[in-house]
Design goal:
The chain is mainly β. The chain has one helix at about 15-20; strands at about 25-30, 50-55, 60-70, 80-90, 95-100, 110-120, 125-130. The chain folds into 2 domains: about 10-55, no CATH class; about 60-130, OB fold (Dihydrolipoamide Acetyltransferase, E2P) (Beta Barrel). The strands form 2 sheets. A 5-stranded antiparallel β-sheet has the order 5-4-3-6-7, covered by helices on one side. The longest helix has 8 residues, at about 15-20.
């Protein structure tokens, strides 16, 4: 498991992080243009609406792009190699994350993945992705 500290909550991201701690993936979605929004915020970057609410998403997607970090530093030094990836969710947004639960060299573009939640700090969790 990769080392992770508790996320920094703001009034815009608190609902997202609270859901992660409960094992649920919520994304903001615009009620006006119906676009999902990544990263969590309370306005729509697509149409500038503030009519946004958090909606639970499937947590399924595919690897859009990735890189393998073969020489980590700091708290990641002992965890290399590990994968940093953009995962394109079934609902559309691409999020930067880690692919876990498999050898780094086996990750490939287009691979189907699903969200898993790994502990972060004492009570929080962070979304990462594993093969389906």
């Amino acid at each position: 498991m990769l080392p992770t500290r508790s996320p920094r909550r703001t009034h815009e991201t608190a609902e997202f992080w609270d859901a992660c701690a409960q094992g649920r993936l919520l994304l903001p979605r615009c009620d006006d243009c119906h676009q999902y929004i990544w990263y969590p915020r309370l306005f729509c970057p697509h149409c500038a609406s503030s009519n946004v609410r958090y909606t639970e998403v499937s947590g399924r997607g595919s690897v859009y792009s990735f890189t393998i970090v073969r020489k980590g530093s700091g708290p990641y030094k002992e965890h290399a190699p590990y994968v940093i990836a953009y995962v394109e969710l079934a609902e559309g947004p691409r999020i930067m994350t880690n692919v876990v639960g498999m050898a780094a060299d086996d990750v490939h573009v287009g691979m189907a993945v699903r969200v898993v939640f790994e502990p972060a700090g004492d009570t929080d969790a962070i979304p990462r992705f594993t093969p389906t």
